[in-house]
């Protein structure tokens, strides 16, 4: 008894293979999707601040904008760089020296005394900042 096998047609007949293997592409895309899903919430993180809740218009604060943050321990940060209050005016003048629009966003912890926030705002005004925006959290809606 003789067993004969049908010989498969070989692909290497001088023409390129027409099938594209998309499995590695799908694997790479899924890994990138997972990476972006994990890292996207961390981009807005930085200095932990309990913002006050208030109804206001939504403003898109991107990395190009200058954000001044006051944490619960009265620490002052300009774009994640800690600065003492005495040097704030000089540092802000340096940051805005090459910018045409002098716009600053202020994030202050709700536990910081109002008087300290006013002192910081006075230093901001002395530095020649034209526009000052306050960042808050939207209030929780009652269901």
UniProtKB/TrEMBL annotation:
Sequence intervals crossing the membrane: 21-43
Gene3D superfamilies, per database record: 3.30.420.270
Record carries keyword Magnesium: no
Family from the record: Belongs to the ExbD/TolR family.
Subcellular location: Cell inner membrane; Cell membrane
Protein's name in the database: Cell division and transport-associated protein TolR
Top-level lineage group: Bacteria
Membrane topology note: Single-pass type II membrane protein
The species this protein was found in: Syntrophus gentianae
Record InterPro entries: ExbD
GO cellular component labels: plasma membrane
GO process annotations (BP): cell division; protein transport
Lineage of origin: Bacteria, Pseudomonadati, Thermodesulfobacteriota, Syntrophia, Syntrophales
GO MF annotation list: transmembrane transporter activity
Keyword check for Membrane: yes
């Amino acid at each position: 008894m003789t067993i004969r096998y049908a010989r498969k047609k070989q692909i290497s007949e001088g023409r390129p293979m027409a099938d594209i293997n998309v499995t590695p592409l799908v694997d790479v895309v899924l890994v990138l999707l997972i990476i972006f899903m994990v890292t996207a919430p961390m981009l807005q993180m930085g200095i932990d601040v309990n913002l006050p809740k208030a109804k206001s218009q939504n403003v898109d604060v991107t990395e190009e904008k200058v954000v001044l943050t006051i944490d619960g321990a009265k620490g002052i940060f300009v774009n994640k760089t800690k600065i003492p209050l005495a040097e704030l005016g000089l540092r802000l003048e340096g940051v805005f020296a090459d910018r045409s629009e002098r716009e600053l966003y202020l994030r202050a912890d709700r536990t910081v005394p109002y008087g300290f926030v006013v002192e910081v705002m006075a230093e901001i005004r002395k530095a020649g900042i034209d526009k000052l925006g306050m960042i808050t959290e939207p209030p929780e809606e009652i269901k």
